[in-house]
Write the structure tokens for this entry.
Amino acid sequence: MRDELYSPLGQTLAPAARPPRRSLGRWLGAACAAALVAGGSAFTALNQPAFAPPAPPSPVQVAEQVAERRPEPAERQPNVLRMEQGGGFTISDAEGERPLVDDANPMTGSIRVLEPGSLRQPAAFSHMPEQALLEATDFGPLPVRGADGRRPLDVYAGAWSGTGGTRIAIVVGGLGVSQSGSMRAVEELPAGVTLAFAAEGNSLDRWMQTGRRKGHEILLQAPMEPFGYPDVSAGPHTLKVADAAAGRLDDLHWSMGRITNYVGVMNYMGARLNADPAALQPFLGELSKRGLLYLDDGTSLRSEARDVAMANGTSFASADLVIDTEREPAAIEKQLDVLERIARAKGTAIGTASAFDVSIDGIKRWAAAASGRGIEIVPISALAFDPEARG
């Protein structure tokens, strides 16, 4: 045992057995067989046609496959949100009418309404009034909310991108007073410019239809009592403060029956009425009931229209400045520059003008370069405060 431990490692191991020798003939035979196999494989590979990947499907096949996999879009039903006179809202959709918010869980009620443009009149029919939004009266057809809750403000609204960015609304009024000025405004101003028609004007329906076909949004200019009345008058159908405060709105209704397809009313003169909350309340309530907006032309610093409109739930907008207080090209260009700076400061701005040749020329020049400066000219409805806004 001791001898084995101290013996050099591996010295006592038996020699390993050698493998038997193979004959040279056997090695040569195996080599020849391998050569024959390799040669045959090479010959086969060289004489076979090249391997080609499968041809890609044609664009028509791809389109057909995508169409087969794409599910048919579900039919979208218009959902309409209506503000009730007593407060609260009603939603009307494919499931019927119901209160907007569940009384049992008022803070988590969901709103399902269609995007703002979904109720807009198709462009091909934009010059035609929606019969469901008209009320037959002694003053002619007056705008009214439809039985389904649609408003003239929704249906006759002008188109715009719906995106953010710097947005400016320009309202050119006095259409119908001068036929040449009306023609130039309708034909030459870009579609984003809103046109306001004077109730006392002529050929209003003809100019309205042309303007709508050109893509313009429409307002009605209603004559209202100014300071200094009757020495200073807006016309025979001026809406007077005393009448408005008493709810006597015949003169307003006369103006409203002169034209159709408008989204709202704009004041013509009317500084005194705009400064009287008691007169504004019935007037703005009437516009809200009929689904119209009100644009204050911004000429009076004493106007109370914004506060009364907010309290009354009336869609409302107010102009930031008048573009053509001075009818000179340089002055108009300066005012448009100020309007643009206002819009860049707060995101939006509203300017008003009249259909004078010099005003139309100045607005055309400015508008032609506005988009290159990142400005979108939008209809007035796009910038109005709307308590019933959808989306």
User: Anything to note?
Assistant: The CA atoms of residues 226 and 232 lie 7 Å apart.
